[in-house]
Amino acid sequence: MSKNNDRFRRQRLGDNRWIQKYAIGELNFEDDDSQQEQSSNSGNDQEWSGLQFVSFGSGSSGNCSFLGNENGGVLIDAGVDPSHVYRDLEANGIRISRVKGIVLTHDHADHIRYAYRIVRENKHMRIYCTPRLMGGMLRHHNISRRIKDYQVSIFKEIPFFLAGMKFTAFETSHDAIDNMGFSIEAGGKNFVVATDMGVITPRAEHYMSQASYLMIESNYDRNMLDTGRYPEYLKARVRGEKGHLDNEVAAQFVASHYHQGLDWVFLCHLSDDNNTPAVALGAMRQALQGRGLTVGDGSNAPSEQDKDVQVYALPRFDTSLWFVF
């Protein structure tokens, strides 16, 4: 069963493991809103180039990550306590004023729990979601109706620009309201977010197969789920077409759609009861190696840098390593 992300999150200030930055290449950013989005790198902001990514928590206890460039950044989902998000951004030289908004994948609580609090505390930010998704959020008894004042409506398959990046939402299959993933283009590279999905829809396959950096759900191990303590109705829900993606399906998809432009695979939303990082990583590694590919562990050690693809499991309760592509 899920635990509260706030109770189990470690205090990590001063822990160099997650603060360490990984320089994985240089990108040039050219987009039609760069003049509007450009802000000064003064004060606490560090100078940087390239695309930055970090996850503050991934799983049914809470989901939130940051993706940004020199023009600013965005939060992807808002299910982690904002105090941890603010602290970890500040520790890496990024003021919350540089975060332009929140993009939401669906209306389950582990993805939206803190959305209103974040925009209420940072009135320059907006929430980017479809009208149907906002309607689903408004039906939650613990979500303020004032959240609608901060909404910017988006629509699937219609791109929009934010923080120097081009976002395209696409259809995913889950038991929430108007579920979606995102293909995020910057500097000729695609960062694709594909979480909480029982099956890979045709449109999801289209975008995921073009990813340079793929954040894909690897929720459960089939045997652990089948023999675990979940009641049968919950097992059926997880296995269903609107449930979650199992390790083998995720691994076979990535292996069968691998291309030379795919540099990183981030495994997200791992179950605390029916999976472990070692099991999920093992399934992905085995599938990729079965295609004759070399697989790095994301450590940036000299022996790992020349591998065909890097694979990293996003921590459930903790902030991940900080990546610069």
Question: Could you walk me through the main structural features you see in this protein, from its secondary elements to its overall organization?
Answer:
It contains 12 helices and 16 strands. The model is unreliable at 1-46 (pLDDT under 50). With 325 residues, the protein is an alpha/beta fold. It has one domain (49-324): Metallo-beta-lactamase, Chain A (4-Layer Sandwich), CATH 3.60.15.10.
The mean pLDDT is 87
Q: SSE order, as H and E?
A: HHEHEEEHEHHEHEEEEEHEHHHEHEEE
Report on the biggest sheet.
8 strands, mixed
Estimated share of beta-strand residues: 15-25%
Number of domains: 1
The top level CATH class name: Alpha Beta
**N- and C-termini, Cα separation:** 35 Å
- What do we call the CATH topology? Metallo-beta-lactamase, Chain A
CATH architectural group: 4-Layer Sandwich
Strands of the widest sheet, in order across it, are 1-16-2-3-4-5-6-7
Radius of gyration: 18 Å
Work out the helicity level: 25-40%
SSE layout and pairing:
Layout: H1 5-8, H2 16-19, E1 21-23, H3 34-37, E2 52-57, E3 64-69, E4 72-76, H4 82-91, E5 99-103, H5 109-112, H6 115-121, E6 126-129, H7 131-138, E7 151-153, E8 160-162, E9 165-171, E10 180-186, E11 189-194, H8 202-208, E12 213-217, H9 222-227, H10 232-239, H11 247-256, E13 264-268, H12 277-289, E14 295-296, E15 309-313, E16 322-324
Parallel strand pairs: 1-16, 4-5, 5-6, 6-7, 11-12, 12-13, 13-15, 14-15
Antiparallel strand pairs: 2-3, 2-16, 3-4, 8-9, 9-10, 10-11
Helix pairs in contact: 11-12
